[in-house]
Amino acid sequence: MLASRIVAPGRVEVAEVDKPSLQNGNVLVKMVMGALCGTDLHLFEQKRPASDFPMPPGFSGHECVGIVEEAGGGDVRVGDRVFIAPRVPRGFAQFATTEPTLLLKLPDHADLDKLVFGQQLGTVIYCCRRLPNVLDMDVAVLGQGPAGLFFTALLSKMGARKIIGIDIVPHLLETARQMGATHVVDASKDDPGKAVAEITNGVMADLAVEAVGLPETINEVPDLIHDRGHLVLFGIPPKGGGWEFNYEKFFRKHPVSFSSSRTELEANFASTRLAMQIIAENRIDVTPMMSHRIPLSRIDHAYDLALHKKDGAVKVLIDLQS
Residue-wise over 91-113: b if at least 16 C-beta within 10 A, else e? Predict the structure, then answer.
C-alpha cells in the first residue's frame, strides 16, 4: 500500500509499505479522505534528531475518515464509515489498523469530504464548552486558518454580537466573512488592537481567541480584550520554549484565560460526535473552507499549499486512495 513518510524536516515522500495485518481484535480501515491541519504542519517542519527519520508510515495524519475493510472485534461491521480517533496519528496511508474503541461511526448520508472536517470542529467545540455565555458579546479571533474559521462560525451560531476575524492572508479573511465574521482585519496592513478598538467604540473585545500559536500572536492577543476580558489560547505554541512572553501585559489585563488541547482524550469523543452531527446536518457549512483535494501520491504538494497558503489554500484535503 502507499503511505506518506516524513524523511526530514519539511520533506515528505510517498512509499510502498506493507499493508497492516489484522491482529488482537483490531479493525482494518480502508482510508478514504484526510486533511492537513496546523498540527501536521508543525510536526512536518519540526527539527528532530536524524535517527528519528524516516517517521512511521502515515504519520502525522489524524484528520482521517474511511470504511471498515475487516473487523476483528467491537461493534463495527465491514462497510461501516468511520473516523479514527487520533491517539496514534498515522492516517496518511491507504489502510490503517486500530482498536475498535477508537472508531467513531459516521452518518451514512453525509459526504466523507465534509465529515473529515469533524475532527477539527470537534476540537473547537471541546474548547467552547469552557467558554462563558457569549450571547451579545463582542469577540475577536486572531488567526483565520481552519481552526480560527471554525471558532468564527461557532461563535456566530452561539450568538456573539460582533465577530472580528483577524489574519494577514486576504483570501482567509474573505472566507471568514463566509463563515460568519461581521468584521475582518488585515493584520498585514492594520494594527489589530487599534482596529478592534475602532470596531468596538473603544471598549475592546469581551473575548479573544488566539488560533495561530506563534510567539508574536500569543503576545498580541491580550491587546484585543478589555480589562478582565476572556482569553482563549488555542494555537499550538512552538516546542522547547526559548521565546519571550510578555507576562506583564498579560498580567495587567487580568484576563480570565485558559488553553485547550487533547480533545482525543474526551470521554466517548463527545465533542467530535457532536461535530460530525453538525456537519452531517449542514448546520455549519464547510464548503467555503474546501479549497483543494490532492491525491496521496502528491502529498508533498498538499503540504506546500497548506504551509504557504498558495493558490487560495484554506483546507487541503488528501484523497488517500489515489
Answer: bbbbbbbbbbebbbebeeebebb
Polymer length of the chain: 322
| pLDDT tens digit sequence for 269-315 | 999 999 999 999 999 999 999 999 999 999 999 999 999 999 999 99
CA dist., res. 245 & res. 219, Å (int): 6
- In the chain, ranges of CATH 3.90.180.10 domains: 2-120+264-319
- For residues 109, 111, 116, 122, the Cα torsion angle rounded to the nearest 10 degrees is -50
95: phi then psi, degrees, rounded to nearest 5: -140, 155
Neighbours of 242 (CB within 10 A): 7
Contacts of 50 (CB under 8 A, 6+ apart): none
Compute the distance between CA of residue 121 and CA of residue 153 in angstroms, rounded to an integer: 10
Q: What is the pTM of this model?
A: 0.96
Distance CA 218, CA 237 (A): 8
Spacing of C-alpha 123 from chain mean position? 7
131-259 homologous superfamily: NAD(P)-binding Rossmann-like Domain (3.40.50.720)
Mean pLDDT by 10 residues, the chain (322 residues): 97 96 92 96 92 96 97 92 90 96 93 97 98 98 98 98 98 98 98 98 98 96 98 90 89 97 93 97 97 98 97 98 92
